């Protein structure tokens, strides 16, 4: 049984890598499955997603209801790529109908790799344990230099400020984190601010890619005209 479980895990990674390898620059949006279409944050999530989609970014969500649905919906309404990384859960996880591409996972850890691997930024709308789990995992990976730094955006000052106050007043004070660690986080209230932050990051990243030396520079080897340059 343990051996076959390894094959199931491997199959989820393979499918994710195959399906998402060509989606282009993407933004992962997280948020509560429990806030319905009448909630103000549902409408704000749609606005954020719509703006990002219009600017050419693929939207990735957990594929479920609530604010995940709002993010997929905002992208699909604009004709953009709207990806859902669905997972099997006892309740609350019902795939929404606004996905242009759907993947299905059994294991949280395989799914979480896909969120971070193909994103150039995270937008965390108000949410519960799942949203905080994704946020803190990415924050830890950036803090420990395990992934290339990208924007970690908390949307909704009223909702997220108490969390940042705790970090500042308790964690920094106790020296379990530093003030510099807090600089890795942005907190905003307007969809346009999200787009500005993502665009600035994308501009910086493109400049780094363009400035990166070719792998065969100085070796005398001829460059492959079709080769891609990455960071």
Number of helical stretches of at least 4 residues: 8
Structural class determined from secondary elements: alpha/beta
What letter string, H or E per element, gives the SSE order? Answer: HEHEHEEHEHEHHEH
Strand order of the largest sheet: 4-3-2-1-5-6-7
Tell me the total number of β-strands: 7
Q: Hey, roughly how much beta strand do the residues contain?
A: 5-15%
Task: Output the radius of gyration.
Answer: 19 Å
**Which residue ranges are poorly predicted, with pLDDT under 50 across at least 5 consecutive positions?**
218-231
Outline, from the CA principal axes? globular
Largest sheet: 7 strands, parallel
Distance between the termini: 40 Å
What would the average pLDDT be, to the nearest integer?
91
- Assign a percent range to the helix content: 40-55%
Describe this structure in words.
The radius of gyration is 19 Å and the shape is globular. α3 (67-77) links the parallel β2 and β3 (82-87). Residues 218-231 have low confidence and may be disordered. The protein has 8 helices and 7 strands, in the order αβαβαββαβαβααβα. It has a 7-stranded parallel β-sheet with strand order 4-3-2-1-5-6-7, sandwiched between helices. α1 packs parallel to α4 (108-117), α2 runs parallel beside α3 and α2 (40-54) packs parallel to α8. With 231 residues, it is an alpha/beta fold. The protein has helices spanning 2-20, 40-54, 67-77, 108-117, 129-143, 157-172, 179-182, 191-211, and strands spanning 26-30, 58-61, 82-87, 101-105, 119-124, 152-155, 185-188.
